[in-house]
Amino acid sequence: MSKLDFASLLCSRLCHDLVSPVGAINNGLELLAGEQDETMREAVFDLIEKSTVQTSNKLQFFRLAFGAAGGFSAHLDTREAEKSLRAFLAGSKIDLIWNVSAPELTKGGVKLLLNLGLVTAEALIRGGTLTVQFNSDDENTSTVSVTGEGERVIFSEDVRAALEGQSKDSDMEPRLAPALLANMMAEELGGTIKVEAFSSEKLLISGSINSTH
Q: Which domains, and CATH codes, for the chain?
C-alpha cells in the first residue's frame, strides 16, 4: 500500500469516528433554533455539551495516536498518552489499567500503545477491562502487551491480519487503519506484533520493539 493510500484510509477512519458527535452538535443547534419549551432546551443543551466533550476527547486522542503531536520532539510524555486514552474511553464501560512506568517514550512507541489500545477496546463490545503494559530490559529491547477482558470479545480475522502484517491491499478498509498503523509503528521500531490469545472473553496482543529506535 502506498503512503498516499494509507493516508486516505486513515483520514476516512478519522472522519467516520468524528461524524457522529459533530452531527449531534449540529442537530442540537438546529433544535434549539426552534424549540421554546425550557425542559426540552435543557435536554438539548445537555446533548450538545456531551457531544462537544466527546468530540474534544476524540480529537486529543487522535492527535497523539494518528497525528504529529509534540512537533519536532522525539519523545512524548506517557502521562499525556494515558490521559488521552482515558478521556477517549470515557462513557464506554471500559476500565483502563495503565502499567507504563517510563515517563516518556518515542513518538512511535506512544502511537503503538495507543493504537493497540484502540484496537483492543473496540473488541470489548460490552465493556470490560483494558490493560496496557510497557516494560524495558537491559538489552535495549522493550515489550508491549495490551489485554482486553470482558463479558463479550469480538475480534475479526482481518483486524488480526492487519496487526500481524498479513493484510492484502484489496482488503483495506478504514476500520483497519489503527491496526495497520500499529503494525507499521512496530516495524519502524524494529519489532513485531502478535495476537497471543483470543477467546470470547479475552484478547491479548503483545509485541517487542528496539528501545533505541
A: 3-210 (3.30.565.10)
Angle between helices 38-65 and 3-34 (to 10 degrees): 170
pLDDT in tens, 103-152: 999 999 999 999 999 999 999 999 999 999 999 876 678 999 999 999 99
- Overall pTM surpassing 0.85 (yes/no): yes
pLDDT of 68: 80
**Is residue 89 within 8 Å of 120, Cβ to Cβ?**
no
Residue type, 165: G
